[in-house]
Specification:
With 290 residues, this protein is an alpha/beta fold. It has two domains: 69 residues, Four Helix Bundle (Hemerythrin (Met), subunit A) (Up-down Bundle); 194 residues, 3-Layer(aba) Sandwich (Rossmann fold). 50% of the residues lie in helices and 14% in strands. The protein is built from twelve helices and eight strands. An eight-stranded mixed beta sheet has the order 3-2-4-1-5-6-7-8, sandwiched between helices. The longest helix has 18 residues. It is elongated and about 70 Å long. The structure holds guanosine-5'-triphosphate (GTP). The site of guanosine-5'-triphosphate has 18 residues, from helix 5. It is an enzyme of class 3 (hydrolase).
């Protein structure tokens, strides 16, 4: 599958040369920077590979490709991408700034779970915009999930979360996905609201996952916007969306190393089936090519 974030095009020239030379290293560095690995990670990858090439006294670009693949895979696999969803119900809070693909992700995630035989209910705890609730309802339905809507516009988000979990417990639903607000007047208002949702939910049951949705096309900027969530929301996993429209495959590694939080899901399209788990081995195969 050709992906826009694959490095295989950028690396082609490099691996078709007969021997590893200065140009090889320049090309590698350019390719990594262009793919948004960031300068620190690029420097450390290049330094590590130079050391390996020296240690194994190789001049074969194919060896370098293998080493690059191993390095990236090893670094991506340092954090565990497994979702913890064994509690019943397993409550997942979905957080992130507006426009990153939160609603779509909840629908796709519901589909991902119902396809695997789990029952899902979505809680519309972003209660301010009626249109947003309706959009979420459409995606929940596509994903095969039921939905708990606010009883009136602007209902306290924590009470919607409460009602959703109560219903899940009553109806024996496996997984609860709570959609939270992405935009309020102030950051502290947003974080207070989220803290209240968490407090109320934790009285009912443990929170299984707090997933932060990030738009891969915005790269480092998007990360800066999401900083408050990373600092205050107790995020347990990242969901990268819009990777299909991004040339920034390196963001995947840089976001994980910068935040210390594992990527758990990846969105690569606008369709209901376009969300997958994150598998470093597969990702790196696609990134490096062949
Ligand atoms: N290409 C692509 N588009 C995506 C992906 N995920 C979401 N989108 C698109 O991104 C846009 C925003 O998605 P939403 O799910 O509405 O985002 P949101 O964060 O809920 O936005 P608000 O409702 O405004 O808060 C939509 O046009 C989606 O189709 C993805 O993985 N790939």
């Amino acid at each position: 599958m050709a992906t826009p974030w694959s490095l295989s095009g950028a690396l082609k020239g490099m691996f078709s040369r007969k021997t590893i030379d200065d140009e090889t290293w320049d090309d590698l560095e350019d390719a990594l920077i262009t793919a948004d690995f960031g300068s620190d990670i690029t420097d450390s990858i290049v330094a590590e590979l130079r050391e390996n090439v020296r240690k194994y006294s190789t001049t074969d670009p194919e060896d370098l490709r293998r080493m690059l693949r191993e390095t990236l895979e090893e670094r991506l696999a340092r954090l565990d991408p497994t979702l913890t969803l064994s509690a019943r119900p397993a409550v997942v809070l979905v957080v992130g700034v507006n426009g990153v693909g939160k609603t779509t992700t909840i629908g796709k995630f519901a589909k991902f779970l119902t396809t695997r035989g789990r029952t899902v209910i979505v809680g519309a705890a972003d209660t301010f915009r009626a249109a947003a609730v309706e959009q979420l309802a459409t995606w929940a339905e596509r994903g095969g999930a039921s939905i708990q809507k606010p009883q009136q516009q602007g209902q306290d988000p924590a009470s919607v979360a409460f009602q959703t979990i109560e219903r899940a417990q009553r109806e024996g639903v496996d997984i609860v996905l709570i959609d939270t607000a992405g935009r309020l007047q102030t950051k502290s208002g947003l974080m207070d609201e989220l803290a209240k949702v968490k407090r109320v939910v934790e009285k009912q049951t443990e929170i299984a996952e707090v997933l932060l949705v990030l738009d891969a096309t915005t790269g480092q900027n998007g990360l800066a916007q999401a900083e408050a969530f990373i600092e205050h929301a107790g995020v347990t996993g990242l969901v990268l969306t819009k990777l299909d429209g991004s040339a920034k495959g390196g963001f995947v590694l840089s976001v994980q190393e910068k935040t210390g939080i594992p990527i758990k899901l990846v969105g690569q399209g606008e369709g209901i089936n376009d969300l997958t788990g994150f598998t470093p081995h597969v990702f790196v195969q696609n990134l490096i090519g062949r």
